[in-house]
Design a protein that fits this description.
With about 170 residues, this protein is mainly alpha-helical. It is built from seven helices and no strands. It starts with 10 loop residues before the first helix and ends with a helix.
């Protein structure tokens, strides 16, 4: 196995990666390749994943917070797209309690033939696929909200990159 960068250990990154992969598959299966919506959903999913990584790699805590917020915004937009799809295709959504839990995901995984145990295949049924992705998005958004709050608290307690450089510079003088 290769070297892992710290962001690859974040649950928010794991979920965003799964969401990106399943969204790519969902869009290829259920949304016309010629559709602008197809491109926007795939890009929103990609942005959700990539901005977590980019933010983590920033030296500036302020930029990390900003990029985590961009990730959260992208995944929020993607959640809206899935809810729109469900409404337009008259797909019944699971109750909110279900979309915040793991029971449904575990049931889907049990029926899945995926080779990675924690990553389900996209269900063949569009109702189950939409609900699975909405569930994963709610979980990722919850984790990102907590991650951003934690980063903001760290920024308040420790200051930012520029402040730390200024303190080091002042100490040298």
């Amino acid at each position: 196995m290769g070297n892992f960068v710290g962001y690859k250990y974040l649950k928010s990154y794991h979920l965003a990666t799964i969401i990106y992969d399943l969204t790519f598959e969902f869009c290829n299966r259920y949304i016309s390749l010629k559709s602008r919506t197809h491109d926007q959903m795939v890009q929103a999913a990609r942005s959700g994943k990539q901005n977590i990584a980019e933010g983590y790699l920033e030296r500036s805590l302020k930029m990390y917070i900003k990029l985590a917020g961009v990730s959260r915004g992208s995944l929020g937009e993607l959640l809206e797209d899935y809810e729109d799809y469900a409404r337009q295709h008259k797909i019944e959504l699971w109750p909110v309690e279900k979309t915040r839990g793991m029971r449904e995901i575990r049931a889907i995984r049990k029926r899945s033939t995926a080779t990675v145990p924690y990553i389900p295949n996209l269900p063949d049924n569009p109702t189950e696929a939409v609900n699975l992705l909405i569930t994963l998005l709610n979980q990722a958004n919850f984790l990102l909200d907590r991650q951003i709050a934690s980063l903001e608290e760290k920024f308040v307690k420790e200051g930012g990159y520029t402040e730390k450089l200024f303190k080091r510079r002042a100490a040298v003088r």
